Every structure is written in C-alpha cells, then in structure tokens.
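Lab notes, practical 5.
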Amino acid sequence: MLIINDLTKKYGSLTAVDKLNMEIKKGEFFGLLGPNGAGKTTTVKMISTLTPKTDGDIIIDNNKMDRNLTAMKKRIGIVPQQNNLENEMTAWENLELHGCLYGMEKGSRRKRIEELLDFIKLSDRSNDLVRTFSGGMKRKLMISRALMHQPDLLLLDEPTVGLDAAARRSMWNLLKKLKNEGLTVLLTTHYIEEAETLCDRVGLINGGSLVEMDTPEKLIEKVGNFVVEYFDNGEIREDFFDTRRDAAMFAADLKGDTKIRPSNLEDVFIKLTNERVGG
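Output from the prediction step:
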C-alpha cells in the first residue's frame, strides 16, 4: 500500500533522513523503532506532507504523494507526538471540528463520533472539556480524531510517549483492536516492548538510515534467541545463542554472576549499531 523510495530530508548540511526505502503492505501494522533523533518523526511528517521532502518518492496505491493533492491527503490519518487537541472544546466538539474540516455530512459526522467515542470508551465524557482529561484519555481522543474521516493509512508518532505504564498498556489494547480490524498502521516508537507487542514487521532506524527490517521474531533470530549477561573485567558483556541449552552450557563455565534471558529488539539494535534504543 505504501512504498517509500530513497526518501531524503536535509536541513542545510544536516541529513535527517537518508535515502529511506521500505514498503508497508495493506493491513500491516509496521513499526519504525529507533532512539530520539533517529529520523522517525521527520519520516512521518514527510509521508503526511506536513514537511516537504528533499528527494525521493512516497507512493500510496501506485499514486505519488503530493501535498497539493487533497484527495490523497484525505487517505491519511495522523496522530502527532505532541498534543494538538483544542483543550477548551469538548471531546465531541474536537471530533465535530475534524469532521467539518474533512467535509463530512452532519449525519455521517454524528454517527462516526458516537462510534469512535464508544470505541475509546469515552462516551460518558463526550461533553467534558478536553483540558479536564488525563494524558491517556487525550491520546485516545487524538487517535479517534485521526480515524474520524476513515483513512486508509494511520500514522502514529510515538503515541504512548509520556504515559505511565498503566495508560500505555491501555493504549496498546486500543491499538490491538485497530490491528485486528485490518487498518494499515505506521507506528514510530522507542519502546522495545511496544514494537514487539504490536508490530507485524519492524524497521530499525538510526541516524536517518534504515539499519534492518523484518518481523520481530526474525530480527531476534538473526542475533540469537537467548543472551547470557556476565561481568568481565568490570564490564557487562553479552553473548548470544540460538538455544537456552547452548546459553546454559556457556554460562556454566563462567565465574561470578550470570543471567540468561530471551533476546529482544534492543539486543538486535545494539548488535547492529552499538547504540541503545532507549525508553
């Protein structure tokens, strides 16, 4: 559904995104995982046309994306990293405004708002001012607003950043529902567990470049399914193994404290870039 060819963004001498290439299939929940400053948000802004690209192509269903093509932009819903709701308006009014801006008829708007508020379990707060909402409630309302005009592609830029653990998991449950409904989603995150829990495939991005791309399971298999952590000369070291048995045999010959655990996407990222994702 979404094809990105040599997508590049430069700010003077700084290259924020460097010849990015990837393809997201219809109905896929795709994650861009990387540390802050890796180019994730810039990529999302270029796809949504909020930021002009320096070079490359963004193609949706064989049509090149152009910021002047209103019909194309209507196919995209975006949830930015920063809260941009109207805090002095109610939840209902925020969704109503979005529907009006996208030319939805009054009857269709009302029905869609009722569906979405029920979906995020905020029907009982529909007439409350957004400024009275918790951070998690605001995030859910932002997702509903992005879904208001029924887009084909949903862009989620760090949707759980700043939320506590309970609110984050509540958000994951909501996003899993979208995944089960077959919506095409591009998620950016620096949370390892978020990418592993939600994404069908993950692209590891660092310094504006795509480092590796595959399913979480296959990415982990590339470094080894289990890791042994141990101290050596005052430093924590890690060795990877395909099976727990191999890891245990290696650990048995070590002196001092050791830990055997399943590998995760952060291990993959560190192995490939010598940097941590963070979060």
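Observations recorded by the TA: Residues 160 and 168 are 6 Å apart (CA to CA). The chain has two domains: 2-214, 219-273.
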